[in-house]
Design brief:
This is Alpha/beta-hydrolase. This protein has a single domain, classed as Rossmann fold, CATH 3.40.50. The chain contains eight helices and seven strands. Strands 1-7-6-5-3-4-2 form a seven-stranded mixed β-sheet, sandwiched between helices. It starts with a strand and ends in a 9-residue tail after the last helix.
Length: about 280
């Protein structure tokens, strides 16, 4: 399992500097950063993510009138209308609407599309309210049912599973139900993961740690018992989402027998990839 945090996963972020989207304002206004609450605390998690939701609104809204749980993105079909080469199964954080992939997961998908243009995304159907017991289990059931169904319909399709904050809990909860599909799951990626310390291979949908990437910023109150609210909100902006997308794309290419194609694609996009999500 590889760990990252900030600046594309290299060494962590203190979260002290201002970044795009008014994070400095959020930090000073929220009054949450000094709580010292333990990682995974329900009240702390809900406060943090509600603050982020108020700051960013629906900035990751999906194109069109997407229905709950629909696959999104323009992917080339390989087996029927609902198939693509790679699908990102994405679980958003608290208070992020069902009609969006969320701020972090939306950025992850947009970066992934740059590297794997045929990729699609599935927005996991579960409640993003303040329930941290039943809701992640419900989300995990949706993940398992969706992958089981689509894996039969699309025998060539691969999957990546990702989640932010509460959505990361969904990723872990889905592991037991996906044991029979580990050869179809290219990677699992989490951001601000409350269950970060559950690092046994059996706690991940991949069934191993090699295909797992965990992003936990220095000072994040949710995954690192820190005291900096900003650290929990920076993953879409500090290079983490981009690094997560690259990790998924690399494993997809490796498992799909296309290892040499990713580097050439990256070279062709070097000048635009960093700023294309503005």
């Amino acid at each position: 399992m590889s760990e990252g945090g900030g600046s594309g996963g290299e060494g962590g972020e203190s979260g002290e500097e201002q970044t795009a989207g008014g994070l400095g304002t959020l930090k000073s206004a929220s009054g949450i950063g000094g709580t010292g609450a333990s990682a995974g605390s329900s009240s702390n998690l809900s406060q943090l993510e509600e603050a982020g939701s108020e700051e960013y609104g629906n900035s990751s809204s999906l194109e069109g009138d997407q229905q709950e749980g629909d696959a999104v993105g323009e992917g080339s079909s390989n087996e029927g209308d609902g198939c693509s080469s790679l699908e990102l199964v994405s679980a958003r954080g608290t208070s992020e609407p069902q009609s969006t992939l969320g701020f972090t997961e939306g950025a992850l998908f947009r970066y992934l599309k740059q590297l794997v243009p045929s990729a699609t995304a599935y927005n996991v159907r579960y409640s993003s309210d303040l329930d941290y017991l039943k809701a992640p289990q419900d989300g995990a059931k949706d993940v398992v049912n969706h992958i089981q169904s689509l894996a039969q319909e699309c025998p060539q399709q691969k999957f990546a599973i990702a989640g932010y904050s509460k959505g990361a809990m969904v990723v872990h909860e889905s592991s037991a139900g996906l044991k029979g599909f580990r050869d179809r799951i290219v990677a699992a990626v989490t951001f601000g993961d409350p269950f970060k310390m559950m690092n046994g291979a059996g706690n991940w949908p991949t069934g191993d740690l090699e295909r797992v990437k965990v992003f936990c910023n220095k000072g994040d109150p949710i995954c690192l018992n820190g005291m900096n609210v900003v650290a929990h909100l920076k993953y879409p902006l500090d290079g983490s989402a981009q690094a997560g997308a690259k990790f998924i794309a690399q494993w997809f290419q490796k498992m799909d027998g296309q290892e040499s194609s990713l580097s050439s694609l990256e070279d062709s996009r070097t000048s635009s990839s960093t700023n294309s999500l503005d």
